[in-house]
Protein: XK-related protein
Amino acid sequence: MAECVVVNFSSDSVRIRTDDLSNNVSEESHIQPGRSVFGIYHIICLLLSITTFALDVGFDSWLAYFYYRQGQGAYFALTVTFLIFPALITTAFSLRWYIIDGDEPTLSKPPLWKWVLRIIMLLLQLAPILRYCDALAYGIHSITAGKAGNRIRQQKMYRKMLDEDSDAALLRLFHCFLHAAPQAILQLMILIFHANRSDESSIQAIQAWAVICSLVSVAWSLTSYHRSVRYARDDKEKLEWQGAVMQFCWHLMSTVSRVLALSLLASLFPAWMGTVCLCHWCVMSAWLALAHQHTAVCASRCEELLFSLVLGLAYILAFIAPRDGPTRYSYLAYYLVFFMENTGALVVWCVASSSAQNPVLYYGAVVAQVVAFLLALAFMLLYYRYFHPSGTSTTLSKSISITDPDMDLAKPGQSKQFSSQQTL
Structure:
């Protein structure tokens, strides 16, 4: 059976067919030994993804309930908006991908009971959870087939596990930038607003936990996505657990720095913060749309525009390279802007606020924001220096033929990936 992978040179996609490899090469011959086995590392990552998603949504839902009970209509409306809107977006994308996969003739049709389960989970707005559970199920089937000595089925189930994990990771990325990041800024802004005025609130502990869960959720979603992209490609070195830990620390500190800076500004001048984020979003979305950053995730120009809007939101908080190639100078430019915006927000807050009102908050916020940014840079440098996967595998480097770049992709599970992320 011929397999296809997407390789990007500049912005053009090409197909590489592996059926022209040397004679008598089986399906298993180009699979890296030890890399295609579902193990404890995959299980831990999937369980962490489910847990962080559940805690993030759970604490925010709990907060919305408390705001409603206490009659805080504005806080309740904002919290619910950032709960429902992201859930609807991710559900729409997930349903669309199920329909696309259902129309793919090379894939087996799911039974009726599975479609019923999908509809129920989608109605409950739990699209990522369903895909994570499917990935776990495929992984368990892979283990069972391996123990039974059925190597072909083991590899087939492992590939399906990677496909579901990749889809779930991309959905989770959307959800975090639409839900977790705004919720973290909102709840931290409320905490700072009341702390700056020495107001006592009975739900401050819940707010603090909600902020922590949102920050962890964003950091893990970025780490999980980068890991899943590499595992979905047979020609890429994998992100091992040491690199994943280092990347998680990098994204966590970067997110803390950004969220804290925006929250401090929003606690005094929410309109300013909203204007800055809106301008940032519009500029980034327009650039993505006008640059025609095509991905196989989108089947139409309308979906491309929606995809650009969603991805544009990500650039408020984190950088995701839009195309293949070196990212050194892109990261340098992004973090330079990142530093200037954060510093500007911090300076405005320091000037407009007063250390006499709450000296612990005043000096603690400044130190935390600066230290978090410096730690983010340190973890990023350590990751690229010692823990970054060592380039691409040469397994498919011989006897390949490049065919028509306009042909459809033959491996649906890889079609929903940002091609640029293969360099991370």
Summary: Residues 39-392 form one domain.
